[in-house]
């Protein structure tokens, strides 16, 4: 199979998926990371800077030397305790890292996809208020207001709640972008599979690395044996092993979406294909997000 390119493969469910992919026959795995990656070929990637993101895409093309990309897995992300952080380009950090840098990678690397390739953007069920995740649900997917939250007149004034909104909105953007990607003529002509994957709530990953120490500690503890009762009670809670396996199965084509489906959710350790939120099914919102994101990263729409 052609090469697999991945972000977020250094820890958590991404590392589980990367290990599985690296051990698969005839798979070449390229992993974007700030430092070393435990599996695959590590290439430097800093998602807080668009120039570094472009450099990573260029390095991927150079490293592959004409070999097409069989799977593009955009999995990295995080959540913060406020919206005060800014990327090197001045964007709100959660939106910039979780979504905008990955949008740029998508635009840069889609032309390199093989026929029958797979694209997976990791999202979250928190984009849908009906999931009942307990986080502030997204009010919109307006790229410019998310990139510059100080320009949003309706921004949540409580820092932690504003941070939750930044996270859930970035995940809504991922679902909408996959929807828009799947409709592109060049994607349809090459039979590319595009999926937004919700891994469920997976404790013990690097998602919480920017949260205060007590929250990081609780997140880590719940990822181990202590968290088993929690996982048993909720269909949306999964282990890193189950979530990583779901990502690897999509990448390798072991799991294929039903016709017309672009949203997958891991529930009780298995991939399901529910409807995404009502906002995530808005084609006009998907088109506007694609266009505005292109402007923010300096691309033609």
UniProtKB/TrEMBL annotation:
Entry's transmembrane regions: none
SUPFAM superfamilies in the cross-refs: NAD(P)-binding Rossmann-fold domains (SSF51735)
UniProt cross-references to Gene3D superfamilies, sorted A to Z: NAD(P)-binding Rossmann-like Domain
GO molecular function: oxidoreductase activity
Keywords carried by this UniProt record: Oxidoreductase
A Pfam family reported for this protein in Swiss-Prot or TrEMBL: adh_short
InterPro entries: NAD(P)-bd_dom_sf, SDR_fam
Family: Belongs to the short-chain dehydrogenases/reductases (SDR) family.
Protein name per Swiss-Prot or TrEMBL: SDR family NAD(P)-dependent oxidoreductase
